[in-house]
Automatic annotation (TrEMBL):
GO terms for cellular component: cytosol; nucleus. PANTHER family: HSC70CB, ISOFORM G, HSC70CB, ISOFORM G-RELATED. Residues 94-161 are annotated as: Disordered. GO terms for molecular function: ATP binding; ATP-dependent protein folding chaperone. It comes from the Eukaryota. It comes from Turnera subulata. Transmembrane segments: none annotated. Residues 125-136 have a biased composition (Polar residues). Residues 138-161 have a biased composition (Low complexity). SUPFAM superfamilies: Heat shock protein 70kD (HSP70), C-terminal subdomain. Keywords: ATP-binding, Nucleotide-binding. This is Uncharacterized protein.
């Protein structure tokens, strides 16, 4: 170790400290806001998971406050209580817990187990086909009457069951 290294390290820590503290505070506040938000994009997140995010934020904030007070009590020439790397590690730990919860995708709507059948069948283009062909099919009316008033589907379309 050279003679100026401890001084350089303390100066580097002093200049970086406010930036990393601000980053950690921003991280904590962002996750807290997401957990207490009434935004519909967070509605699908379980209340217990939101509470887990809030608990993590409160603990990280208490840790930050304590370490900042300890550091502020020291003179600039003293070895720092906490290094910038420690603040980054804490931010990463908060992120590891909170990010998967707050970025959890909404579940896809459940598909009904039985397909819903509409009460009246939608027109399947048979009226348009008859109008376009000019009723060239002499049996077009026979299909309509034989099926109890329902038009027969076009031959290229599969029948609904």
């Amino acid at each position: 170790m050279q003679q100026g290294d401890p001084i350089d390290e303390r100066y580097k820590e002093y200049t970086e400290r406010e930036t990393v503290i601000d980053q950690l505070a921003y991280c904590i506040n962002s996750y807290r806001e997401a957990a207490v938000s009434n935004d519909p994009k967070f509605d699908h997140i379980d209340l217990a998971e939101k509470q887990k995010v809030l608990t993590e934020c409160v603990e990280a904030e208490a840790w930050l406050r304590e370490k900042k007070q300890q550091q502020d009590a020291l003179p600039k020439l003293a070895t720092p209580v906490l290094l910038s790397a420690d603040f980054r590690k804490k931010a990463e730990a908060v992120d590891r817990v909170c990010r998967p919860i707050t970025t959890k995708p909404k579940p896809k709507p459940a598909k009904p187990s039985t397909p819903e059948t509409p009460s009246t069948p939608p027109p399947q283009g048979s009226e348009q086909q008859q109008a376009q062909s000019g009723n060239a099919d002499p049996n077009a009316g026979a299909h309509e009457n034989a099926e109890g008033g329902e038009a027969a589907p076009a031959s290229g379309e599969p029948m609904e069951t």
